[in-house]
Amino acid sequence: MDGITATTDRGAAPVGHAATIEVRGLRKRYGPVTAVDGLSFTVTPGQVTGFVGPNGAGKSTTMRIVLGLDSADEGTALIGGRPYHALRTPLLAVGSLLDAAAVHPSRRGRDHLLWMAHSHGLPVRRVDEVLDLVGLGQAARRRAGGYSLGMRQRLGIAAALLGDPPVLLFDEPVNGLDPEGIRWIRGFLKGLAAEGRAVLVSSHLMSELEDTADHLVVVGRGRVIADTSVRELLAAASGDRVEVRTDERAAAMTVLAGAGASVAATGRDTLTVSHLAAGRVVELLGGAGVGFSGVAAHRATLEEAYMELTRDEVEFAGGQASGGSSGPGAPNPSGEGTR
Predict the structure, then answer these.
(1) Of all helices (H) and strands (E), which one includes residue 48?
(2) Which fold, 17-228?
(3) Which of the residues 119, 206, 243, 327 has an alpha carbon 20 to 30 A from that of 103?
């Protein structure tokens, strides 16, 4: 965990309408590019909401609009029922981490938080509390320019927590964290939500959100594709598929396909079968004398569910390397990386 230890003891946050993010009919264009196209969703208190989508889907633009860093062409983005610019003490209403590098490299970590605390009349002891909370207490007087990326992420999280706000937004919070740090942030985010806060987390790591998020908002090309609980999404993605483990893969595929199933080889000794119940699979293979070591209902991963949802929404898709100009080091005419 970057050589430091974090604590997890926190006080309770206010609940109710104050701990909400409401996005309604949001639209934003940058010249000819539509970054956000009629986006609507609500982040409610008491749960971690994952905010996911391909590059260029409009996630960062939406978060910037919520935080008053960009203005919408149409629609509203409210925190506790108010736009960001109407919040009298914003640090006490919403905390955010959008860019861990947004700290002056010559400024000490503690001093970075001190000026923020002074701007809102927060006591100095709160600075030391959040530094200890994220595990930076011993590194507080070091200059931020000497911090690792993981330590800068922790400093950004400390800044977000400084005003003990009921609403929190994090953009890729696990970037730069080692495995122990990732495990810590996973439990930390769930703990914040358990206190009644609304927690919005943007991430490309579906495996992390599967273990952390309660709800998911999936966007593509500036529009909402899905707004559902992680449990419901995984159940829908799992469907009626069955996984079969067998050393006689070819024979099993022939038997099951002949019974009307859709069969795909998903591993050296694994098949995924659709449109046949597990009991019927066992009956067919047994009747045909095809050996197998296991038959079980398929449980989709969040990554599988996400890829299925967004396969037609990817703006910048790579091709297979073929030894031509599309290989590594080739020019990228698409402009990937813009918003």
Answers:
(1) strand 47-52
(2) Rossmann fold (3.40.50)
(3) 206
Residue 111 CB neighbours (<10 A): 16
φ/ψ (deg, to 5) at 53: 165, 165
Give the range with max mean pLDDT: 72-86, 165-179, 272-286, 310-324: 72-86
Among 119, 183, 130, 190, which Cα is nearest to 155's? Answer: 130
Angle between helices 149-161 and 124-133 (to 10 degrees): 130
pLDDT higher than 90, residue 20: yes
User: For residue 227, what pLDDT is reported?
Assistant: 93
Domain boundaries, the chain: 17-228, 240-297
Whole-number Å distance between alpha carbons of 189 and 198: 10
End-to-end CA distance of the chain: 31
With a cut of 80, say whether residue 251 has pLDDT above it.
Answer: yes
3-state SS class at 273: strand
CA 325/CA 7 separation, integer angstroms: 51
Sheet harboring 33-43: ordered strands across? 33-43, 21-30, 74-79
Q: What does the block give as tokens for 46?
A: 């008491």
Contacts of 46 (CB under 8 A, 6+ apart): 15, 19, 193, 194, 196, 197, 198
Residue of 271, 267, 196, 217 lying closest to 241 (CA atoms)? 271
Between CA 306 and CA 301 the distance in angstroms is: 9
Distance CA 58, CA 36 (A): 5
Question: What's the pLDDT tens digit per position in 79-138?
Answer: 999 999 999 999 999 999 999 888 888 999 999 999 999 999 999 999 999 999 999 999
What is the percent of the chain where pLDDT is above 90? Answer: 57
Architecture of domain 240-297: 2-Layer Sandwich (3.30)
- Please provide the DSSP assignment of 64-82 as one string: HHHTTSS--SEEEEEETTB
Question: Which residues lie below 8 Å from residue 258, measured CB to CB, with a gap of 6+?
Answer: none
C-alpha 286 chain-centroid distance: 43
